[in-house]
C-alpha cells in the first residue's frame, strides 16, 4: 500500500492527473506537482481549489520547482515529499532520469510515453529495448514497480489488446489501433500536445508490426477510412507509435498497427514544415550567428496546447479494431472509448486529448495505492490485469465500449472476475 | 565623366553587376566589390576571371570586407578606392547609410530596391518619401547623382512607363506591371532573392494606385490571368511594389498596379508560413531563452538564392500593359522583356531573376560614366531619358519588345532620337 504522489510535469496532462489525484487524495495522500516552471504548478493548484476538487479538503497539495533531467534533485524531492508514487508526465526526455530516481528511492514509477533522446528520431525497434527495458532486471531486483506507457495510447489500448486476446478470441490475426480526434480547437493550426514531441512521431520512419516482423513505411504513405462510433467516417494514417514496441513483444499477434487520424489541412501544414526543414531537431546557423533548432522555433510560434482547452469542442474516439477467430469462426470487435472535449474541460480544465492521456495515469496510481497493480517490477500495461483498470476508468471518466456486429456495449467486470484476475 | 565603380553586395545581383561592369571596364575603370562576407566577393572575382569577362585584362578588380550599415566605413572605402560610382545591391536595409556616404564623398549612387527599416513592414505610401526622398534637396544642393530603383522592377519598368506615356499615348488610363518568372529551380521551395526581403513584399498591406489614390488590399486577394509572349497563360496577383511609389507621383496616370506571378504551390507554402507566424520580423522567445526572428530562421533553412542558378531553366517575362487613347482611339500595348535563366547563367553565373535586376544597374553605371545619366540630383528612373537606357540594354542582354495587336517588335532609338533626348 503505497501513498503520497509526486506528479512531474505541469502541462495539459499534468493538469488532468493532478485534478484526478486530488479527487482521490483520501487514498493517495499528499499530492505534489513539480515542473521547471513552478508557476504552471501553482496555476494547476489554483484550478484544483477553484473546482473544489480535493476530496480531503485538508490534504497536502504543493508545488515544486524541479529540473527532472537532474536525477539527484528528483531523488531529493521524492525523499523530501515522502512520495511513494511518481507519475511522470513531463517531457519525454526525462523518463530515464526520473526512473533512476525512483529506483534509488523505491518509489513506484508511472509514465505515459516512451523515453526519447532529444538528438535522435525514430530509433531501432522495439523502442522500449533502447532505454526503459535496460532497467527491467534492476527494477525486479529492487522490487520497484514501474508501469510504462500508461496514458491512453500507449496505455489503455494495451489493456484493450490484452482484453481482446484473452477474452474475445482464440486466435488474433490483427490489432489496428485507431486514434481519432474529431474535435476542433478553432485555431489555424495547433498540436494537441507538445509540438516538439508530437512532430517527432511523424518525421522519421513509420514502424509497424506486420506478419510477425517490423515493417518500415513513410508517413502518410498508407491510410484507411473507417466508420466509427459517434465520430463517423474518419481517415487515419499508418503511424509509428510506442505501444507497437511492447505489444509486438508480449502478445502472439502477427499484425499490430497504429493509425492516427489527420485532416488534409494538418497534413498540408505538416508537409510544408517538414519539407522546408522546419521540423528538424538539428540546429541551423542564422546570418547573425545564432544556432537555432527549427523545431523549437516552430513550437514557440504555435499555440500552447494547454491554451486550446477552453474553446475545444467535439469528441475523440480511440480504440482497437481486433480481428481473429473464436470457436472456429472469424470474429471482429472494436474496443474503444469516446471522450468529449467540453466535458473534459468542465471537469478538469483540460481538453480531451490531455484528458484521455491523464486519467489512465491517475488510475494506475490509484491501483498501485490499492496494491492491485503494485507489482514490484517493470511492466507495460498489457502485462497487468486489465479488469480493475477498465472498471476503475469506467467510474472516473473513460468508459470502455465494445462494438460487435454494429452493437455497442459497456465493458465491465464482475467482482468474481476481479477476484479471479487478482 | 565619372569612373571607378564600387559594387556593394555580393549576392546573385552583385554577381551580375560585377560581371557586366567587368565587361565594360575600359569605360568604367577600376571595379571593387564589397560585402560583409569577403569570400562571396572573392568567389565573384574568381568567376569573372574564369569567364575571362574583364574587357581590359589589366584592369583593377578587388574584393573588400565592408559593413555597409556603417556610413563612416563606407565613406572610407569610397575614398580609398577612388570610386566615383557606387552600385548598392546589398541588403535593402543599407540604402540610407550608403547614400549618405555617397553624399559625403560626391560619388554617384545607384540602387535597385527601396530602403527598408528591418523593424517595419509596408509603411505609409509613397514609400520613397519615408527615406530616400528626404535626401533629394541635399543631393541637388551637393550635385550628387542618385538613381533610385534601377533594377528591372523597379527600374526598367519605370522607363517603360515613361516610354509609353511619352510616345504611344495621348492619355494613359492604366499601367499594369506584370512580373512572371516561368522558370523552374527544381527545389521544393525557394525564393529567387533574399527571402527576408522577398517575403516582406507580401506580408503587409498591398498598396496600389487606383483612380488617382492609394488603395489597400490583402495579398492574394486580387488576381489576373494574361496570355503573355513566350511564357503563355500566366496568373499574377496584385502585389505592393516599389515602383508604384514613384510612378504615381511622377506620371499623370490614374491607375498603376503591380502584379506578380505565383504558382499555387508557392502560395500554399507562403500561406502556411505566414499564418503560423514564421514570416514575422518580430523576435519570439524559445523555451531555452533564445530570442529568434522567425523570418531569419526561414531564410536559414531555405536554399541560398544564388545556389539555384546552375539548375534553373525557363524564362522570365516582365513588362507593362498600358491602356489609354491615342489620336482619339483606344490603344493597348505591352512593353516587355523576356530573359532566359540558362543563358543568364552561361553568361554571368546567375539565374534570370538576378540577371534582370543586375543588368539595368550596370547599365546605369555605364550611362553615368558616359555622362548621359550623370544628372547631379536624386531621380527615379522615369525621370531620366529612357532612350539611351533601352538602347544600351538591347545591346547588353535585356532587349525591349513591344506587343500591339498580337505583333511583337524590338524597341530601339535612332541616333537622332538619342540626340533629341540628351
TrEMBL record, chains A, B:
UniProt-listed Gene3D superfamilies: Dihydrodipicolinate Reductase, domain 2, NAD(P)-binding Rossmann-like Domain
Transmembrane segments: none
InterPro entries recorded: NAD(P)-bd_dom_sf, Sacchrp_dh-like_C, Sacchrp_dh_NADP-bd
Domain Saccharopine dehydrogenase-like C-terminal span(s) in chain numbering: 151-397
Residues of the Saccharopine dehydrogenase NADP binding domain: 5-147
UniProt name for this protein: Saccharopine dehydrogenase
Domain of life of the organism encoding this protein: Bacteria
Amino acid at each position: 500500500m503505497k501513498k503520497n504522489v509526486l506528479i512531474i510535469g505541469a502541462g495539459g496532462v499534468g493538469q488532468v492527473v493532478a485534478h484526478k489525484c486530488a479527487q482521490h487524495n483520501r487514498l493517495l495522500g499528499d499530492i505534489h506537482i513539480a515542473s521547471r516552471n513552478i508557476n504552471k504548478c501553482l496555476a494547476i493548484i489554483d484550478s484544483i481549489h477553484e473546482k473544489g476538487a480535493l476530496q480531503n479538503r485538508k490534504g497536502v497539495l504543493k508545488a515544486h520547482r524541479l529540473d527532472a533531467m537532474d536525477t539527484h534533485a528528483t531523488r531529493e524531492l521524492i525523499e523530501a515529499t515522502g512520495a511513494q508514487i511518481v507519475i511522470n508526465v513531463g517531457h519525454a526526455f526525462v523518463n530515464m532520469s526520473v526512473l533512476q530516481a525512483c529506483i534509488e528511492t523505491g518509489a513506484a514509477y508511472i509514465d505515459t510515453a516512451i523515453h526519447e533522446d532529444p538528438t535522435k528520431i525514430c530509433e531501432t525497434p522495439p523502442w522500449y529495448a533502447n532505454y526503459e527495458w535496460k532497467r527491467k532486471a534492476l527494477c525486479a531486483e529492487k522490487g520497484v514497480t514501474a508501469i510504462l506507457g500508461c496514458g491512453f495510447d500507449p496505455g489503455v489500448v494495451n489493456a484493450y489488446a490484452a482484453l481482446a486476446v484473452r477474452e474475445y478470441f482464440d486466435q488474433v490475426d490483427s490489432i489496428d489501433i485507431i486514434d481519432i480526434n474529431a474535435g476542433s480547437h478553432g485555431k489555424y493550426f495547433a498540436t494537441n500536445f507538445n509540438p516538439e514531441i508530437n512532430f517527432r512521431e511523424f518525421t522519421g520512419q513509420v514502424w509497424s508490426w506486420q506478419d510477425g516482423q517490423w515493417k518500415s513505411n513513410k508517413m502518410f504513405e498508407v491510410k484507411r477510412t473507417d466508420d466509427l462510433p459517434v465520430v463517423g467516417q474518419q481517415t487515419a494514417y499508418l503511424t509509428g507509435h510506442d505501444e507497437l514496441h511492447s505489444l509486438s513483444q508480449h502478445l502472439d499477434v502477427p499484425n499490430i498497427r497504429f493509425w492516427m487520424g489527420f485532416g488534409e489541412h494538418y497534413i498540408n501544414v505538416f508537409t510544408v514544415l517538414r519539407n522546408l526543414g522546419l521540423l528538424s531537431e538539428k540546429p541551423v546557423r542564422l546570418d547573425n550567428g545564432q544556432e537555432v533548432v527549427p523545431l523549437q522555433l516552430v513550437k514557440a510560434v504555435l499555440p500552447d496546447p494547454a491554451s486550446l482547452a477552453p474553446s475545444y469542442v467535439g469528441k475523440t474516439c480511440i480504440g482497437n479494431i481486433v480481428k481473429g477467430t473464436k470457436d472456429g469462426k472469424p470474429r471482429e470487435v472494436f474496443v474503444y472509448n469516446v471522450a468529449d472535449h467540453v466535458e473534459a474541460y468542465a471537469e478538469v480544465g483540460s481538453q480531451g486529448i490531455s484528458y484521455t492521456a491523464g486519467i489512465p495515469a491517475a488510475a494506475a496510481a490509484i491501483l498501485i495505492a490499492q496494491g492491485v497493480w503494485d507489482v514490484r517490477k517493470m511492466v507495460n500495461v498489457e502485462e497487468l490485469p486489465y479488469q480493475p483498470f477498465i472498471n476503475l476508468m469506467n467510474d472516473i471518466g473513460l468508459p470502455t465500449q465494445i462494438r460487435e456486429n454494429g452493437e455497442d456495449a459497456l465493458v465491465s467486470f464482475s467482482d468474481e472476475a476481479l477476484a479471479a484476475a487478482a
